[in-house]
Design brief:
Blueprint (H helix, E strand, L loop, with lengths): L3 E6 L4 H15 L6 E6 L4 H12 L6 E5 L3 H6 L20 H4 L6 E4 L3 E3 L4 H4 L9 E5 L1 H8 L8 H35 L16 E8 L1 H6 L2 H9 L3 H4 L3 H8 L4 E3 L6 E2 H13 L2 E3 L16 E3 L16 H9 L2 H6 L6 H5 L30 E3 L2
Parallel strand pairs: 1-2, 1-4, 2-3, 6-8, 9-11
Antiparallel strand pairs: 4-7, 5-11, 6-7, 10-12
GO molecular function, one term: glycosyltransferase activity
InterPro entries: Glyco_trans_8, Nucleotide-diphossugar_trans
Length: 381
């Protein structure tokens, strides 16, 4: 049986929740075994129940359920100071799932700022190691931001996060030296060629939390969820309110990477385009290419940056598709699912050929491995 989907949402992000649900319904094509849990923070219950009943009329084989965290869970979030109007407390509800879903061994967790483009069957059936708590895609945005972070940066949270990671790097570098010395001594004793020690490369290897497979069975059995509760009830949640930073620190060596196609960060391609242009390259649009380059489409995309589809007119990948789904009524969409052509709106993205996902769904950082670079850009002097 495929694992269930859990979506964190509150009324503040209700428009994004509805678009996400529409995209799931379109892509899943009535999977008989699909269950979707909605983690409701402050959505008016009558309203959300009415909406789900409307969906259920057209989704006979999909189970939709509302999860309301306990008063105790809500009290844990009361000492959380949110400085942004777009920051949702519902994002913390993923920390309660081991308690809220005692019968589930693992679930797929979605944040509301995501959009499903293709069937989720592979993700829902993705094999996991019982000894690993989290499966998630690499957070290329956060990793790059940390690597380029200036000492004088005004970002208190990122500086603090980077300092903790750098402390770990010092520890691992010391271990690398000791391992190298140990292997040399061992080789001298056996008169063999010294083996090469595995070294820490100093990169910030982080995971994104917008889409995750959570191994709830392990989190329960090893009492990891108590660490979640301790975080929420301590001053740490005030000094480090970003749940993605907290989870990356806690599960630093307890996660495995999913292919990037399961959470393609929209803002990452925008930053890449900007950096290429800053480096002196003039990018050709998809329409300008003499021969149309092929591309692999992500299964899921996330709007992780400051600019969101509904608060900015900024051009971004998949915004056109988001707006069309936003404008469609759920009933009309589900009744005429074969009429709605998602690819038509996706292809209108100017730099669709820069998605650069290989056939296995991993992001290719080296352009030359995918297509001749000169076909995509021209160097300007």
């Amino acid at each position: 049986m495929a694992r269930s989907i859990v979506i964190s949402a509150d009324y503040k992000v209700s428009q994004y929740l509805e678009v996400l649900l529409k995209s799931i319904f379109l892509s899943e094509n009535n999977r008989a075994d699909l269950t979707i849990y909605l983690l409701n923070y402050d959505y008016p219950r009558d309203l959300i129940v009415h909406y789900l009943k409307q969906c259920q009329l057209h989704l006979k084989h999909c189970k939709l359920k509302v999860l309301t965290p306990s008063k105790g869970h809500k009290r844990l979030l009361q000492n959380l100071n949110l400085v942004s109007d777009t920051y949702s407390k519902s994002l913390y509800y993923k920390l309660f799932l081991a308690e809220l879903l005692p019968e589930e061994e693992s679930v797929v967790s979605f944040d509301p700022y995501t959009l499903v483009l293709q069937d989720l069957g592979e993700l829902l059936d993705y094999p996991i190691d019982p000894n690993v708590s989290i499966y998630a895609c690499r957070d290329h945005l956060l990793s790059r931001e940390l690597e380029n972070l200036c000492v004088s940066s005004n970002s208190y949270y990122l500086n603090k996060f980077k300092a903790k990671l750098d402390q770990e790097m010092v520890f691992w570098r010391q271990n690398d030296v000791l391992n190298e010395q140990s292997l040399v001594i061992q080789a001298q004793e056996t008169k063999a060629t010294p083996a090469k020690a595995t070294t820490y490369n100093g990169k910030y290897d982080l995971f994104s939390t917008e889409v995750m497979i959570l191994n709830l069975k392990k989190i329960r059995e090893e009492k990891i969820f108590y660490k979640y509760l301790a975080y929420l009830s301590s001053n740490e949640v005030v000094t480090t309110p970003h749940v993605n930073i907290f989870l990356n620190l806690l599960h630093r060596y307890d996660w495995q990477a999913l292919p990037d196609k399961f959470n393609y960060q929209v803002d990452y391609i925008n930053k890449e385009v900007f950096m290429l242009e800053q480096a002196g390259y003039k990018l050709r649009t998809y329409q300008e290419l003499a021969s149309k380059l092929s591309y692999n489409l992500p299964s899921i995309v996330s709007f992780t940056g400051v600019y969101k589809p509904l608060n900015s007119n900024k051009k971004m990948p998949f915004r056109r598709l988001f707006i069309e789904l936003y404008n469609e009524s759920i009933s009309e969409l589900l009744l005429n699912r074969n009429v709605f052509n998602s690819k038509e709106f996706i292809n209108k993205f100017t730099y669709i050929h820069l998605l650069r996902l290989d056939d296995q769904g991993w992001y290719q950082h080296d352009l030359s491995q995918i297509h001749p670079y000169v076909e995509q850009v021209q160097i300007t002097h």
